[in-house]
């Protein structure tokens, strides 16, 4: 398959509408339809169920959508890393969630800056799920990720820190005076409900909780009594007097890892990883 065909198919699969996909790709609809039909013939599979009113992915189409996204990310990553390698000023781009692992990040940057031959580190602070995506598409050279929330498949990683989780509630909540709360009880809370985080495609799952993009927004909603959330214990440092914190012993532990592409040959990335593992 050509990358052009994969881009065409991904657009149609995400829009589930040939007209919108053609507009997104800035091409006419007839050649787009022909390209998808030719792709189906060459693969010998049906990728889309078409009716007069709707388009739906077949099982084969869903597989191709997942694989095509990964392949296109790899192509874009190769382009970006190649250009960055040719830059006059060497540097390394580190992606991490805003507000997460703040103390660890500060120690890492300080320790790395003291290393002989250290280069400039550009820190990209972003929302949940984005550091992983930035690392996969080549916009970042290395990232701090958090299992089990982030997927580390396809990366080389080193574990840096493991911690337990707590539930953050509005001050005065009926559960605030408990010594601990089971995760099952937290998951059934409706007053206030758990928040909804965006998925990889930017869409939010259905549910009663408010949509959130980052921890600053989340903690303000909790203080207002509009949400509660299970978060790593280290985020206690960002909380205020109008928050209450209760341990959730059976919530999965969160492990902060430093991750990088397995084919990376960057000395700066290697030095940064070695510094992180020594902390």
From TrEMBL:
<dbReference type="GO" id="GO:0032993">
    <property type="term" value="C:protein-DNA complex"/>
</dbReference>
<feature type="domain" description="HTH lysR-type">
    <location>
        <begin position="1"/>
        <end position="58"/>
    </location>
</feature>
<keyword id="KW-0010">Activator</keyword>
<keyword id="KW-0804">Transcription</keyword>
<keyword id="KW-0238">DNA-binding</keyword>
<protein>
    <submittedName>
        <fullName>LysR family transcriptional regulator</fullName>
    </submittedName>
</protein>
<dbReference type="InterPro" id="IPR000847">
    <property type="entry name" value="LysR_HTH_N"/>
</dbReference>
<comment type="similarity">
    <text>Belongs to the LysR transcriptional regulatory family.</text>
</comment>
<dbReference type="InterPro" id="IPR036390">
    <property type="entry name" value="WH_DNA-bd_sf"/>
</dbReference>
<dbReference type="InterPro" id="IPR036388">
    <property type="entry name" value="WH-like_DNA-bd_sf"/>
</dbReference>
<dbReference type="GO" id="GO:0003700">
    <property type="term" value="F:DNA-binding transcription factor activity"/>
</dbReference>
<dbReference type="Pfam" id="PF00126">
    <property type="entry name" value="HTH_1"/>
</dbReference>
<dbReference type="GO" id="GO:0003677">
    <property type="term" value="F:DNA binding"/>
</dbReference>
<dbReference type="Pfam" id="PF03466">
    <property type="entry name" value="LysR_substrate"/>
</dbReference>
<keyword id="KW-0805">Transcription regulation</keyword>
<dbReference type="InterPro" id="IPR005119">
    <property type="entry name" value="LysR_subst-bd"/>
</dbReference>
């Amino acid at each position: 398959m050509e990358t052009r065909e994969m881009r065409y198919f991904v657009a149609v699969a995400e829009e589930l509408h040939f007209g919108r996909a053609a507009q997104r790709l800035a091409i006419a609809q007839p050649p787009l339809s022909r390209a998808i039909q030719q792709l189906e013939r060459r693969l010998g599979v049906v990728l889309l169920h078409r009716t007069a009113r709707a388009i739906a992915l077949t099982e084969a189409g869903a597989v191709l959508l997942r694989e095509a996204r990964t392949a296109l990310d790899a192509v874009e990553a190769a382009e970006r890393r190649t250009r960055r390698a040719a830059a006059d000023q060497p540097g390394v781009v580190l992606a991490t969630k805003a507000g997460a692992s703040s103390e660890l990040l500060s120690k890492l940057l300080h320790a790395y800056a003291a290393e002989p031959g250290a280069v400039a580190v550009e820190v990209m602070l972003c929302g949940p799920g984005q550091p992983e995506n930035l690392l996969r598409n080549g916009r970042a050279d290395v990232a701090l990720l958090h299992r089990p929330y982030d997927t580390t498949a396809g990366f080389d990683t080193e574990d840096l820190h493991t911690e337990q989780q707590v539930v953050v509630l509005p001050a005065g909540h009926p559960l605030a005076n408990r010594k601990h709360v089971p995760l099952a009880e937290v998951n059934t809370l409706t007053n206030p409900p758990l928040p909804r985080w965006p998925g990889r495609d930017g869409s939010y799952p259905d549910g009663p909780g408010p949509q959130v993009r980052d921890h600053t927004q989340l903690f303000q909603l909790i203080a207002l009594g509009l949400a509660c959330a299970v978060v790593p214990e280290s985020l206690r440092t960002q909380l205020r007097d109008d928050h209450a914190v209760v341990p959730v012993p059976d919530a999965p532990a969160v492990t902060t890892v430093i991750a990088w592409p397995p084919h990376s040959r960057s000395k700066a990335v290697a030095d940064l990883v070695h510094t992180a593992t020594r902390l």
